[in-house]
Amino acid sequence: MFIGRERELASLNKLYTSERFEFVVIYGRRRVGKTTLINRFIRDKKAIYFMGVESNAKQNLENFSKNIIEFGTGIQAESAFASFQAALEYVFKLAEKERLILVIDEYPYVARASKSLASTIQLLIDKNKDQSKLMLILCGSSMSYMEDHVLAYKAPLYGRRTAQMKIAPFDFADACRYLKNFSAEDKAMVYGMVGGTPQYLLQINDRRSVEDNIKNTYLNPMSSLFEEPENLLKQEVREPALYNAIITAIATGASRMAEISTKVGEDTSVCATYLKNLIALGVIQKQTPYGEKASRKSIYLIDDNMFRFWYRFVPENHSIISRGAAELAYKRIEPNLSDYMGKVFEEISRQYLWKLLLDGESSVEFKDLGRWWGTDPSTRTQTEIDIMGEQDKDTALFGECKWTNEKVDAGVLETLARRSQMFHYRTIHLYLFAKSGFTKGCVEAAGKMGNVTLVQYKNLLEKIVQ
Questions:
Q1: Between 2.60.40.10, 3.40.50.300, 3.30.450.20, 2.70.70.10, what CATH number should domain 6-166 receive?
Q2: Stated pTM of the model
Q3: Orientation of helix 228-236 relative to helix 240-251, angle to 10°
């Protein structure tokens, strides 16, 4: 099943039709669908596809040679190239007169085993680019390697690429395309469970309840998702135990650097390095209050929904899950799901506002969106705003999100309006997002104020997936 990635496919096809040498770098986290995207792109085109393996240079060269042979070049089946340079020179020669795609997937495995590969590719690009019709695609799951050894200024291949694509998980709209048979509410719940990573969405059965899906994945010791976060960390980092401790600390409420450091028992300087790596992997995000570039108020949150859900619920129930007590584990988890969904609903609401902006329907043409927290000067108490976006120094929007079974009343709107006055914008637009709708009093208050948009989740979903 291939869903989404229309923009990426269109970009690749545009590069393909240029008829000149193209060098595309594709990277992103494991399971995010990079290989599926590439296979979709090359399926009706002349292409040599080679996937690197975590082995030595000899093994990878033999595999590369076989892929070239399978392409139908006329080379004897038992032949192999003497070096990567010889193999690549042959491919460049094949692409002198007709368009040919060469894909090296999991490039970091090959490049680590063959230290001179990057310099060899650089040499051959410089030599052949002006007369070549080759479209070279290097793809990798090791984010740090691709950024440091392919895209970085000091890397041999720097300046040679003609395009790069960082493949991100699907947003809520595309994720919903995997979840057609779920109710509106359950679609949000599943997105909160697994996020937008295609491989995780494929583990979900949209003909079963959310409860059954939780039991069959996170609460099932034989499920691939049961050990997925730990397996991913083992593949990406050298010391998974400390990374695991840091993510667990954040998942259980430690959000500031000092709190995380205390909880894991390491100096802040050590934690800072590990957090930087987790941010690069897309697992953790660092947030500062909206409009503040550097702040002591910065906090760290889990950025990926699958990691958030797993670290929130699995470790504390690990022992009973391992003993097959999925029913008991779910009974412990279920009362906390609504509270867990609060942050997920904020994320979905932000995606809705971006959709309005891109469709030219936003009441405020904001530059960015974020959360704000700090001290309310009128009450001298700590307060926060779920969503804030500024158009300019005079105009901004503010949003509040409520994922509850009760209808949102006028008091929530009044609180948001009061908090918006802390910033002294002349033009303000307020958005209230609610899972279950609004009381009559809230609707009437919004009508009187005139600068309020009330958005019920079911209407948000209709807009976001259209």
A1: 3.40.50.300
A2: 0.91
A3: 130
